[in-house]
């Protein structure tokens, strides 16, 4: 496996020991939500766009349908004209691209520094790096207490777990992934921020027990931490 790209791109994280019972694939709502975010920050079509870690290719295909010139890479990319089964490390197209998109793939990348540097170099001056990500390291005690309580509504096994067990398993399941602070440091080192927002992300792992609006309301009230974020950075000439 490449040091610069995970085996699959568009998932919050792989299900851990205590997540598997209620984890579900991304919903149609999530796809539309991410597409709307990316589309809002892309230049007018036809822009030249690279998606890093495209997974099953849904986002890339939607962007191509909007008229953009898309290349989507992933070691396990699907078949199709816009897809390349290649890692970022081995990707040979010199660019430049008008935008690079990474949706829930950046935190998996092995050599994060090298990956972000290469993405910066693939962009034209003024080009944008559009990121939709998971900030698992913001999963604190109050967030875990809420999360475990809501999981217990649908999962008998979760109801028997203590808060300390929940946190220990969460840490173990994410031990080899990059957290928000690491990703943010590399983004700040290479790009000028043009947009940033905290977002809900845990509702997708709760099997329909919680929807996005409920989690967002709790974040807005300061009751729990946001564990997702969206970022747009510009390559400065």
Gist of the model:
With 237 residues, the chain is of the alpha/beta class. It has a single domain (28-234), classed as 3-Layer(aba) Sandwich (Rossmann fold), CATH 3.40.50.
Give your account of this protein's structure:
This protein is of the alpha/beta class. The chain has a single domain, classed as 3-Layer(aba) Sandwich (Rossmann fold). 34% of the residues lie in helices and 19% in strands. It contains 8 helices and 7 strands, in the order αβαβββαβααααβαβ. Strands 3-2-1-4-5-7-6 form a 7-stranded mixed beta sheet, sandwiched between helices. α1 crosses α2 and α3 runs parallel beside α7. It is elongated, with a radius of gyration of 18 Å. The two termini are 33 Å apart. The N terminus is likely disordered.
Content of β-strand: 15-25%
CATH superfamily: Vaccinia Virus protein VP39
Q: Name the structural class.
A: alpha/beta
Shape: elongated
SSE string, helix = H, strand = E? Answer: HEHEEEHEHHHHEHE
Mean pLDDT across residues: 86
The count of domains is 1
Helix content: 25-40%
Task: Show unreliable segments.
Answer: 1-26
